[in-house]
Design goal:
The structure is a homodimer. Chain A contains 16 helices and 17 strands. Chain A is α+β, with helices and mostly antiparallel strands. Chain A folds into two domains: 239 residues, v583 domain like (v583 fold); 215 residues, Enterococcus faecalis V583 fold. In chain A, strand 9 and strand 10 form a beta hairpin.
Chain lengths: 468, 468
């Protein structure tokens, strides 16, 4: 597997894809002839950006990033079981609510995050109504904390409340664990900011029926290898962020025999399987903590400019680097260009939200769009757009994944390890695909689409690197 | 959906793919730049072949083919249940053995077909040993008949004996039914010509445990829509002939809830799910009879030059046309170029065998290779080869499928309806992918690969059309 710097020097020995800069007419004519063309949102820095090779303190950035990439790709995330959040997530009290993205106070929270918090507090019976929950949230009696500060991740609003069941993912290579709730499905669901009786009823069924059935099966079946499952799903049209149909199928295939052996009530077993079968996004809440579990062992490698976190709370977009793992660099969350559900439009959309960009950070999700051409129907765009996305992301990644590959590119590894230096040098920002939540609390999902990470947090991170 | 003739007149208004004829250097240089290039095994007919438009009796071939394509694509194959072959397959006696491909006597049968017949007769307790079974087969007391003469299809040797359980597939649009055995898995299995205790034990378990468990579930669940499932699988990296991982996953997702409700023995349920889960080819024995059920309603359309059957018995390759559905045109079965399992080589390979080319006949399988780039690892070749295969097959097909599509081609329909006229005019022969059986009885699978249908049967069929 060639490192990024080797790839660059070998450029002209390799099959050529046209990267078109500026001359749109030229790229259009090539594209009509079927030549792969990448249009880059190119803004050459005014005076050019010299490659940073060492920190002030003398650490080799290249060596640090090599080690970061090695640790991330050596990770072997496995599902080892399930438990309630308060029992297993470190530092979680009965009045802690975890949320997606960088830290944020109640006052600055966006509509869907507020809605999900309000719903969670009613679900936890800490408040009797959404209104009472809003009051409680503003009172200072609830501790709000990012999932990422607790080895956890959450899609969209990313709310984890104490009595919610969570997946326990263990990185078998390094021993660290990551956590995520179980996926509720699409539409009017808590993670998109919805609340109300339907939402609570589903969450209670998940805690009372789904969770114990799955937990009993895992006690019998032992761990399930998620790295292998993600690798397979990438060969079956998923990118494991916005498309999880294959992953959900493979997960069901793997766990159903143990569920059959441990669940004596056939009707209950059937309902659990149906719930998973009816929700092709069920695997998202496994691919996300798998990514988190793979990335954490790289935190704290001195001099590493590779991202270990990229996350949004619906107000701010934040990144963290392996070389300075506790520091967030933030910028306003972006606007998603997407496809909307009937009855909704861009006017209803909340800005970009959720921890699910942990998938792109780990080298799949939007970075593996070339593996998932069918996702066009979900986030908009053509099969060629999907290829172009992946080709472009190679330019800002440190290496190609050793375990995740793309069949249409003859099993080339996915772009892996977003290097802040390459983002700055090329002017190419990470491209993400995501669901879209309604901007008001209590409503839910309105669409899905594509956007880029905001440049400002990369500029700040790059300035920080100069002072390491 | 443009018909073939419309497609041709519009050629130069469409996005261009380079079709390279002869000048290899030119195509290589284009390919290195990422331009899609199709190398065609082109042999222009010496004096050109004029388009046949009407039969001698005055029928419009275009109209006939239009109706054939309409009927095939209107078909809605559904799994309606399972039963024993002798109970449901018309014309099956206690001493009938069905086989793949065109008709053949015991004396001319290839090694794997003989092996599978011998194994089946022992399994049926009609013979005590493979040797006794060979004697019985040669005695004339067994009726050998093609699956295709009984609305059935069988992969590889394609043996169906009276007490084997079979899938019942009903075309909900036309009411016709098709039949196929349950898939045994890969390796040392009956359909690859293997026999012996392991083979019989597996077949008995399938009849005693797998079959009744599935049958009970179908009685409760009602029909499962196979056209929708194949369409989905094509969006998940299967071509539903040599790659059936997605199809097998989707089938399991669909049937497991009903199995949970009808199978009270958890251990037995677990074993059934595990058997299916461990065999990614399980869905092949559903995609094949689905294709058969879709094709049969087109049989007997006067003047139609589209194939309704393409099948091999390991000795002969045979085709049948919608316009003359009972007549076989045959040629010697071809040699497969492929990848071999450890310990085997091309010297061990039997010629091309099996009814599984019914998938290509119905517009998927090898014709949808572009949907299944990951199959490269199974039959050899690159992702570009997979694209080229599909591009080439558009040239000999009457239309593009309305229900089966390819995400990487922006959901273009698969090439559908092999028109004997176009095969003759272009010199392009249908390209197939297939498993490879050992040439000797009793051994089993040795590899998988790619080949083209033999030209001779198309030449004969074309001559026959001229006399219609």
């Amino acid at each position: 597997m060639a490192s990024h710097s080797e790839k660059r020097s070998d450029l002209f020995d390799q099959p050529i894809t046209v990267i078109n800069i500026g001359l749109t007419g030229f790229s259009e004519s090539l594209r009509q002839q079927g030549v792969p063309v990448i249009d880059v949102d190119w803004r050459p820095p005014p005076e050019g950006i010299p490659r940073l090779t060492h920190t002030k303190s003398g650490a080799s950035i290249e060596e640090a990033n090599k080690e970061t990439a090695r640790r991330i790709m050596a990770g072997r995330p496995e599902i080892v079981g399930l438990d309630l959040a308060k029992h297993v997530i470190p530092g979680m009290s009965e009045r802690t609510i975890l949320h997606a993205g960088p830290p944020i106070h109640w006052e600055r929270m966006c509509g869907p995050t507020r809605g999900a918090v309000m719903g969670a507090l009613v679900y936890e019976r800490l408040a009797r109504s959404p209104e009472a929950a809003a009051e409680l949230s503003a009172s200072g009696e609830i501790t709000f904390d990012p999932c990422h500060h607790h080895h956890a991740v959450g899609p969209m609003a990313g709310i984890i409340s104490p009595s919610m069941p969570v997946w326990i993912i263990e990185n078998a290579e390094f021993g660290n664990r990551a956590y995520c709730t179980l996926n509720e499905g699409l539409g009017k669901v808590l993670r998109y900011g919805a609340f109300g009786e339907d939402v609570y009823r589903r969450l209670r069924w998940m805690a009372d029926v789904l969770y114990p059935t799955l937990a009993a099966a895992f006690e019998r079946a032992g761990p399930i290898d998620l790295r292998a499952m993600i690798a397979q799903a990438l060969h079956m049209g998923d990118e494991c962020h916005n498309r999880n149909r294959a992953g959900t199928s493979l997960f069901l295939r793997a766990i159903t025999p143990a569920m059959a052996r441990t669940c004596e009530d056939g009707e209950r077993l059937a309902q659990v399987i149906e719930f998973i079968n009816e929700n092709d996004h069920f695997f998202l809440n496994l691919s996300m903590p798998a990514a988190k579990a793979m990335l954490e062992p790289a935190e704290g490698i001195e001099g590493s400019t590779i991202l270990t976190v990229m996350a949004r709370n619906g107000t701010d977009f934040g990144i963290r680097m392996a070389g300075d793992p506790d520091r967030w660099f933030t910028a306003p969350a972006g606007i998603v260009e997407g496809l909307f559900l009937p009855g909704f439009s861009a006017d209803d959309a909340n800005p970009d939200i959720g921890d699910s960009t942990i998938t792109e950070t780990a080298g799949f999700g939007g970075f593996a769009m070339a593996a998932a051409p069918a996702i066009a129907s979900f986030v908009g765009g053509t099969a060629q757009d999907a290829l172009n996305s992946t080709f472009e992301m190679y330019e800002i990644c440190y290496t190609e994944h050793e375990h995740f590959s793309i069949p249409t590119l003859d099993f080339r590894g996915t772009p892996m390890g977003i290097d802040v230096r390459f983002v700055m040098e090329t002017g190419i920002l990470p491209k993400l695909n995501t669901g879209i939540a309604h901007k008001d609390p209590g409503i839910g999902m309105v669409g899905a689409g594509i956007l880029r990470a905001p440049k400002e947090c990369f500029i700040e991170a790059f300035e920080a690197i100069k002072n390491w």
